[in-house]
Specification:
Immunoglobulin-like, about 375 residues, four-stranded antiparallel sheet, five-stranded mixed sheet, 3 helices, single chain, mainly beta
């Protein structure tokens, strides 16, 4: 059969029409990640490059919308520009913020359907009452009809005009030797007219390793007349574990926007000995009365003793013996003869003595005990 020129024209028109139908259908779809055939996407890219394609093309004003410093007592709104550099209208199908309590996005009518070469406005509002601190970094996500950029994000950054200052922040103890007392003091200073008075301090999840206290600074020592100051003291306890230590604690105050302010503690705790592993855990199911179900080795570069060895409960037993190395001690975990079936969680405590130093140490102990009759 002879292929006529009219047949070729019809075929080309059919292909173009099929692509246009695809673009229209795609733009009307819900905003989901692109899952199109790579050939189709390459065709869309080519159409963009030659400037003749009937596809929208999203362009953001920037990757970051920086509010600078905003008031702490009211919302602040800024406009963010979205452009369409394509040949057909661009639709903003959906939008969301990573923090609905502190960062709100509103798509104006101008941004819901942006004509070719046009631009639309996204109104972004920061809500200081939803920010429990003085700096906020959140993300706004847009879902669009651009087939090559169906999802776009930009960051929203702002600083809140502070009601009070905290120095130093965080409380970084640096390198601390275990068993040697270490203290740091944080100063909280009122900055504005609203009175800021510290009413309490609350430790975090690892609060058993440090103590907290606070006091009001005498008025004669305030940096500014009428602006109260308080001191918060943190003291690390000898029981603090070796290695990297991290925790946070809350400072309660009369600040209306931030009644509870979170503070960070950091330390690198070293010691003249190591305990490996730093946990006594029976890897298999054990029976009442079974001994040596888990071990840990206390190791040092000098002669040491392990004293005051004890367990916190009645389901497990603990003992020690010299290690293979002259500067090591092995701690052995056992199960009490009358231990009840089930998972037992207890703590093993002891003191490591080396020369004139005596340091308390605690490790957690676990054992899954079966029924002796089974």
């Amino acid at each position: 059969m002879r292929v006529r020129g009219s047949h070729i024209v019809l075929a080309v028109c059919f292909a173009v029409a099929a692509f246009i139908v695809f673009a229209i259908v795609y733009e009307s779809r819900p905003s989901e990640p692109v899952d199109a055939d790579e050939d189709v996407l390459e065709a869309a890219r080519a159409l963009r490059q030659d400037g003749k394609g009937s596809v929208p093309m999203l362009a953001l004003e920037s990757d970051v919308l920086d509010f600078g410093t905003v008031p702490n007592d009211r919302p602040t709104t800024r406009n963010f520009i979205v452009r369409n550099e394509g040949q057909v209208p661009l639709q903003i199908l959906n939008w969301a913020s990573s923090c609905g309590a502190c960062t709100l996005a509103n798509i104006t009518e101008s941004a819901k359907n942006i004509p070719p070469g046009g631009e639309g406005i996204v109104e972004v509002t920061t809500m200081p009452k939803g920010i429990h601190g003085f700096v906020s970094r959140k993300t706004v996500t847009l879902q669009t009809s651009d087939p090559l950029r169906p999802t776009a994000m930009f960051e929203v950054v702002c600083s809140i005009d502070p009601e009070f200052s905290v120095e130093p922040e965080p409380l970084d103890f640096g390198e601390v030797e275990k068993g040697v007392g270490a203290e740091m003091t944080m100063r909280i200073r009122q900055l504005q007219d609203q009175p800021i008075e510290v009413t309490g301090v609350e430790p975090g999840g690892r609060g058993e390793h440090y103590t907290l206290s606070f006091q009001r600074v005498p008025e004669s020592e305030w940096a500014q007349p009428g602006k109260m100051e308080h001191l918060v003291k943190v003291a690390l306890l000898p029981s603090i574990p070796t290695g990297k230590f991290y925790d946070n604690f809350n400072v309660a105050s009369t600040c209306e926007r931030i009644p509870h302010y979170r503070c960070i503690i950091r330390a690198e705790v070293t010691s003249f000995y190591t305990v490996e592993p730093n946990m006594l855990s029976a890897m298999k199911r054990v029976q009442p009365g079974q001994q040596n179900v888990a071990t840990a080795v206390v190791q040092s570069n000098e002669a040491i003793e392990v004293l005051d060895l004890a367990v916190s409960g009645t389901g497990l037993t603990v003992s020690s013996k010299p290690g293979a190395d002259e500067h090591s001690v092995i701690i052995e975990l056992g199960v009490a003869p009358d231990a009840e079936p089930g998972l037992i969680r207890e703590e093993v405590s002891f003191t490591v003595k080396g020369g004139e130093r005596a340091v308390p140490h605690t490790v957690r102990a676990y054992a899954s005990v079966g029924d002796s009759e089974g």
